[in-house]
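Holo model, heme C. Inputs:
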Amino acid sequence: MSVHHLQIHSKNSPAYGCRDNRHYLKAHGIRFAGKPLGRPKKVTEENRETLKRLKAQRQEEYLQRIPIEGKFGQGKDGYRLNYIRAKRADTSVAWINSWNINNGLRSPNYSFTGTPPARFSARIAPQLVGMGLLEAIDEADIEALEDPGGSDGDGISGRIRLVTDAETGQTRVGRFGWKASQPSVKQQVSAALNTDIGVMTSIHDMPDCGAQQSGCGASGAELADQYLDTLSAYISLLGVSARRDLSDPVALQGEAVFNSTGCAACHIPTF
Ligand code: HEC
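Output:
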């Protein structure tokens, strides 16, 4: 893998451009994309071009703020261990350029390079923190909450997805992945390596050809178990930040509403 020169600049909202933040960014060599503080510099013959260039740069960076998925796409077949791609500024085609605030809730406005597509939808990838804690919840505790027929009268039904453990062949509770298709963090990591970036492991040792394709490559683990284990341990141990504002009345009111409106019927607080 080649290492690219990392150019750091901040594309944060001008709302974050207070004096303290600017000092921090400056001290860490990060350029802030917002307007400079203070009265605008007087335009002279000498600085006209420089000021113009700085302004154009600020505007460009502001517009490119918070690039979203862009055209990362599926594109599985070209990927191998030494060719893992990530989204870069020059491969991104969509970004959030502003938002509207209504009733305290922000809704984003998207921009596209070129013609905006007729239809599009945004995605937020699931967080990768606290996975080890979730895995530590006993399967029996999850089974005890299952209510397939909605018979407990709270208006909510829920079924456990049972999956086959690819390492042991046992039937297990599925709990990781968009559709709870994997029973453990390790198997989720292995499946992600295989289907998202085309890297085979001992657990998923066949190429991810898709339903319509066959003969799309040799089989066999490419990543040694040792690395799958360390990667899984790393993901498992990414921590959850401590809860803030524990005694803030507004936060406590939110917690009460969360419980009283039934959110906690699915989002079990003790988990
Ligand atoms: C019927 C069960 C159920 C109820 C009731 C419920 N949720 Fe959820 N919620 C889910 C599930 C399942 C997910 C995960 C969806 C996914 O990942 O695709 C989720 C996801 C979320 C997420 C996203 C979490 C993340 O990490 O991205 C938030 C935030 C959330 N719920 C808040 C609430 C709030 C607030 C309420 C009450 C108004 C509520 N939920 C009521 C089942 C429920």
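The chain is about 25% helix and 10% strand. The pocket of heme C is lined by residues 126-127, 156, 178, 258, 261-263, 265-267 (CB under 6 Å).
Archived with the compound record.
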